[in-house]
Give the backbone structure.
Amino acid sequence: MQAVFETLFDAVYLVTVVTLGMIMIRRSVKAAPAQGTSETAPGISHGNRQYLLFGIMAVTLGAGDSFHLVPRALALCTTGLESYTAALGIGKLITSVTMTAFYVLLYYVWRSRYQISRKKGLTAAVWALALLRVILCFMPQNQWTSPDAPLSWGIWRNIPFAILGGVIIVLFFRSACSSGDRQFRFLWLTVVLSFGFYIPVVLFADSVPLIGMLMIPKTCAYVWTVLIGFNAMKGDISNEKMS
């Protein structure tokens, strides 16, 4: 029963975020004029950089998570998780890196949406936290392919990640409130929820396996994040058509 539910849930999640991301990328890039004419190719054209970044972010999220979720689905549906320890560990490593890229891209969505042109110190801090997180993820002490990976390194590599998430939360909360941005008014909350469900898994899932179920609402929080960007893009396109 667990195998069927998890596999279906993960499949719907991966297909949803990747599909939405690809749609956002396609609609965010203006169609090039046909040679010798001023007409553009048919289809919706929306040249907004923030939605292009959002689309790339969504595809990065889905593609990265697939490296962990696909081996996990195979394991659950065949010989069990113990037989896929190495594949699952490598998948977690890749997911850890792509999730870091996800938040860096989200930072640039914030800069684009709210037209932030300076704050070089903040940008440097975001990149420093992201690079530190990636470096810690690649340290051999993580023992990704071991069935007894140390909890201590799971905590160490997530410290800069949590700080990065906290920065994103504050930035979107302040900007959405100060500008009255109704489309993105809950984006900060999706990040709060994702970390709120993720941290207990990091700390306690090995000793209390049932806590691993929190990854389901964590995943839903990420889908909500992607939907916020997708729905905002649709709303802007509709407004352009009416104007």
Summary: The CA atoms of residues 20 and 230 lie 7 Å apart. The chain is about 75% helix and 0% strand. The chain has a mean pLDDT of 89.
